[in-house]
Amino acid sequence: MMLGFGMGWLGLVVVGLVVWFIADATRRPARTTHPLERLEERYALGEIDTEEFLRRRNELERSTR
Length: 65
What we know:
By secondary structure, this protein is mostly helical. It has helices spanning 9-27, 35-44, 50-63. Helices cover 66% and strands 0% of the residues. The chain is elongated, with a radius of gyration of 22 Å.
């Protein structure tokens, strides 16, 4: 069965998903985090090792003084 504008049910699902994603993206507040928080997060996720974490943390602490 074709619905308005020659769009079938799959087209409506796609349009619905696009609208939902746009609405969801505009509803979220912008994430602003301090660089140290991002560094701690990367360390916790295992993206950087302890040596790299400590080096970058020291650099951040020196730059904020």
